[in-house]
Amino acid sequence: MSLNSVVSAERIHISFFGMCNAGKSSLVNAVTGQALSIVSDVKGTTTDPVKKAMELLPLGPVVILDTPGLDDEGHLGSLRIEKAKQTLAQTNIAVLVVDAHTGLQDMDKQLINELKERRIPCIIALNKADLLDERPLSEDGSLYVSAVTGEGVADLKERLGQFAKQMEKPSVLIRDLLSPGDLVVLVTPIDEAAPKGRLILPQQMVLRDVLDAHAMAIVCQTAELRDTLASLGRKPRMVITDSQAFAEVNRATPADIPLTSFSILMARYKGELDALTDGYCALEKLKDGDQVLISEGCTHHRQCNDIGTVKMPGWIEKISQSKPVYHFTSGGDFPQDLTPYRVIVHCGGCMLNQAEMQHRVKMAADAGVPIVNYGIAIAGMNGILKRSLALFEADRV
Hints:
Elements: E1 12-18, H1 24-32, E2 50-56, E3 60-66, H2 74-86, E4 93-99, H3 106-118, E5 122-127, E6 143-144, H4 153-166, E7 183-187, H5 201-212, E8 216-220, H6 225-231, E9 238-241, H7 246-252, E10 259-261, H8 262-269, H9 273-278, H10 281-284, E11 291-296, H11 307-320, E12 325-330, E13 343-346, H12 354-367, E14 371-373, H13 374-381, H14 385-389
Parallel strand pairs: 1-3, 1-4, 4-5, 5-6, 7-8, 7-9, 9-10, 11-12, 11-13, 13-14
Antiparallel strand pairs: 2-3
């Protein structure tokens, strides 16, 4: 698998911020070696975040984000600034591009403070260094660069590479619980919601993790699970299922075989298993008229029996014996004010990077709103939450 085949959610996200005409877009183009962003002397040329997945040596697979200026003006300008600020949620490393002539402005300093609060590493790039007569010594670790001459660009990439090495993800899906030669059964229903010709991302990721552990994966659909288990010469280490099939798979899987779901594994992988599990109880306590946010990290065509807008509300009403009011978001849309909601039900987050998923969970915690993901919610609704988490007891001590 080439580096460029790595999905965006698994790449380091590097965001370039700064004032209008600080040279953000020019520096992005210099760092990437591509005309990624439109460059102009006209203030406010970058109107929306520009996002590009690419391989950037020596870092490897990354996502580069070029954002609108922090001092954009007017009504549209304020909307653009808000878009730039929203980019922080998915940022792993920030590059603050500053005009070396004017130095740090108040908005630059505000951004630095926000980055510190979010614990996002930041590199200050003093751009247009080729036009300076003198260069004061830097006391904040900033770098002098020139998007025009290329000066300092290699140093900036080297600094980015150092940060990237510090961010190597310790989280795992399932590999640490497997031994070479283990059997793992993956239940992957192929229904009207399944993408044509491929498996969904969490299924692909788990399959790869099993193979990396030198274990063996057996893949089947829900209806074939009983025959699959009966045909095996020995007991599998575990069964992993699509959450929507939890009830049927639970009935078909003997009690002495561990069972969990792809969505629950994604919660573990993103490092939010405990927080999302704790949020389940709020579903059972819902009352008529309570507001429920159902949020998905991807944007896809809604099917007639869509899990987010059709199945999940039905399951919630059955378990809570109530009629809540539902609000739906998808993709990058996520409310900044979560206080109106009684509970948030989120997808597995496979299309969101770890930073953005953790940011959403933290936003919910700060607002005092419980949050649970699809897999945990469905396991709880089927009375098998304890069983679906038994594999991870050591994680939760």
